[in-house]
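The aim of this short unit is practical: by the end, you should be able to scan a pair of folded records and say something sensible about each. We start with the first protein, listed as its amino acid sequence and then its structure tokens.
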Amino acid sequence: MRILIVNPNTTSSMTEKAATAARLVAASGTEIIAATSRMGPVSIEGHYDGALAIPGLLMELKERAGTYDAAVIACFDDTGLEAARSFADVPVLGLCESAVATAGFLAQRFTVVTTLERSRVLIDNLVHRYGMGDRAKVRASDIPVLELEDEASGAIGKLRAEIERALREDGAEAIVLGCAGMTDLARELREIYGVPVVDGVAAAVKQAEALVSLGLSTSKRGSYAPPLAKPFIGEMSRFTPMQAAG
């Protein structure tokens, strides 16, 4: 089984962090393939960044078609998830959807701790969309994404402080890390706080493995039907849909 981990931002160190987390949990017969978008923002913080990250994400899926059995989009905003599911004929998983589903198996109440306030609002909307709005709260820890790459930034202290507030004030029984850049911290934080700490990369990889093993993929009837063939003009001409990828 081959799972493609696509980082929709252009920071390769974040890709490697996600790939390492994926390989730690992948089954012995699973190959993790890591890809970094070659166009778009260096980090995804809000709607504008996310919109401009989608073409690069889709290009990686398109150019690698046929080399993977499932794909994971390594951004907690689930950037481009709907478009990717329409394009690909293999399962495509997003970190937020995978993480909150996993947390729901483990706790009645949980808190997602993310980076900036603009990301908190976006993720809160996703949590409600995924049916977990009554069980989950989303908190921002005031950390720019790229500060998670800098050990001297103080980002980890801010993250821990927000987790402690979640446990104290929200009655959280589990914590979800709301950024792919936090993926390497899950095990340590689990040991420190003694509650389940869910990393979206790990959750998505295991769910992708399950779907492939079950022989299941995204329905192509209705909303995720392949894009209709039509001209795309200008800079977007390279994305002209001809047929679904595989």
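Turning to the second protein, read its sequence before its tokens, just as you did above.
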Amino acid sequence: MKFSEVIGQEEAAQHLLQLAEENRIPHAMLFCGPQGCGKMALALAFASHLLNDSPMLKKWEHPDLYFTYPTIKLPGMGADHQPISDDFAKPWHEMLLQGAYFTVNQWMQRMGATSQQAIITAAESDAIAKNLSLKSSQGGYKVSIIWLPERMNLTSANKLLKILEEPPHETVFILVSEEPEHLLETIRSRTQRFDFKKIHNDAIQQALIQQRGLDEDIARRVARVANGNWNKALEELDAGNENRQFLDMFIMLMRLAYMRNIHDLKKWSETISLFGREKQRRMLTYFMRMIRENFMFNFQQPDLNYMTQDEENFSKNFARFINEANVIDITELLERAHHDIGQNANAKIVFFDMALKMIVLLIRK
């Protein structure tokens, strides 16, 4: 993959190339930034550069390039088996061949996940150490790309720490993280952090025109809603995207809470509890964004809002219920639910409790 294939991020690409040219490449790099900004695309482009743009990279099967990513335990795996990246190598490479921009949700679907949470196991850290102990097959760098290292369990994280403290010769680690604050502090201290900015709307607009054939007006609106997130731009082009379902669930929650319809709120909670945990967390993140957008809608400054037409149509009547008296408490309520779901709390209890508290907060003026 070439840096020219990365959407926007010209400044970041130039900085990475300069590090390579001056032979100042850190042995461990932590790529951070907003979702959809192209962190993985930059990691793949930089890895390709370090591996001399070898033809073997066309299928991402270079012997000196190692991928680590969160996995799940499938029903057919033995009781004592800890899943590792190699168990899912085929769907991983198929996803990479479709593009460098993807989401956790897309990866979970490719693995066939239902309600599981994907993690990086201790066995995976052992596999990293084993793979990187081998000499470079091409006589140059070995590159280890670790996608979502914050999903390591504690044992796995501690084993990786030991590898980072005594890295193999001419090995470059690239950790691509969505939530770096959840990494062990000791791991963060062993890496050089690179914070990438969200993609400029103009770059997304041009990419939509060139790659997707959109006309300028539609591309501009999609780019504005995407707000620097290429993955979100692609979702907006998908007529059946998940956010439309989340909007329906958000509207239902707010209407039932306003009517104090406890019976149907309980049914709503039971429906949500059937979603997988990863989807529940994505939904709560969407709810938090909608609360923010509705609060800002009250200021009647279009430049401050980033909503689809359907979201805006609902907000015209709903936004007045999100005000200075409740916006912080509602956001904190959703954040607590997001945290509790991540900690494997009972989903029915979490969502029904959240819905009941929403009744009180929604009528606060």
